[in-house]
Amino acid sequence: MSKELEYKLVKTKSGQTGYVCLGSGQPLIMLVGYSGNLLHWNSELIYRLAEKFTVYLPDNRRVGLSESSNDLSMEGLAQDVVDFIEALELNKPLLCGWSMGGIIAQALAYEWADLISGMVLIASQPDYSYTMGGLHTLVRNLREHPGRENREKLTELFFSELPSIEFRKYLAKSILHIAGYVYPYNEHAQQLQDHAVKNWLQQAEQLEQLDLPVLITTAQNDLVTKAEASWYLHTKLKNSKLISYPTGGHFFMHRYATELADEIISYTLPL
Predict the structure, then answer these.
(1) Do 42 and 257 meet the contact criterion of CB atoms below 8 Å apart?
(2) Closest CA to 57 of 10, 114, 118
(3) Beta strands of 88-209 (E only): which ranges?
(4) In 199-256, which ranges are continuous DSSP H helix?
(5) Quick check: 156 pLDDT over 50?
(6) What is the C-alpha separation between 271 and 179, in angstroms, rounded?
(7) Of 14, 38, 258, 261, which one's alpha carbon is 20 to 30 angstroms from that of 69?
């Protein structure tokens, strides 16, 4: 079992951000995806990364204690991260975004590329045209009716299969332990994220202009975000590397926690 982590709060120029910090080394900011909170990260992945990086895990706006007066858009969510970087005076952090977190990272890179050293995209996409229809409804159903049936539907979707009992035991052990952290996904966060992703459209020219090093990772059997989204990003981002895992679905980081951490470390530390 991992040790209990402290949930911290930093004031920013637009509000405040709740976050966890661990490790030492180059700063690495991990941006969670749609409907996520900090408990969705895999502790094996995070602690392995913390051996080489100072890892920052911020909550997105309206999740946990994070609040902001920035625009209600993907660009506004990116501005939240910029405000977080500036509030903590982080020097050239690496951005790692999972799913929607990867879109936030891309939105930040278009406007503030000089603030970061590179990006890691996990099961991400240029925009939500690559995401399965009905995801938002499934998430809302679980939030409003948190029963076994709705939970199993999303579990099967995110892993592209129903995990075995043995693997579920591993998942239970791999949850981060954060003191006093009881912040489930809520209606206000979903309204903001639904609006942000619906109104974000990626332009190929934007991607082609980015010269940052980018590590792109995907699972071939991802049912939530099509693997072709990562292939598209790879063709447009001239300084990118693509790694494709055979299984694991949208939550493949839980299947390949150590392997993914080592890929991130080996790709980014020379930056």
Answers:
(1) yes
(2) 10
(3) 94-98, 118-122, 177-178
(4) 204-209, 227-236
(5) yes
(6) 33
(7) 38
